[in-house]
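User: Now give one protein:

AI:
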Amino acid sequence: MISHICIGVNDFERAYKFYATVMAELGHILKFCDDEKPWAAWMAPDAPRPLFLIGKPLDGDTASAGNGQMVALLAKPGHTVERIYEYAITNGARDDGQPGLRPHYHADYYGAYFCDADGNKLCICCHEPQV
């Protein structure tokens, strides 16, 4: 259904370091990184799509987060959600919902929410029972 998602960032070097760690924790690999453009993309190791991209806006303006927009990234059961959430908060992200079960979505929905340094809202979630 989704080919790729791109979020705008203002400080590419800072954002790249942040997202490289998040993507590695989720098991995704770097597809490309072009410091000249600047932009970078990650993908699952077993599929070329979807891609998760970060980059400076093509129009040269300042990147800004969309009100009501959020990107949710799948995590495996275990402590992945907590590790990524703690990493994010420790590295400049703003809390928007601590890790926990959210049974109002469904019985096994476990997630955490935060906004990166550019205000982009992200969710790290797992839809499987936690082990």
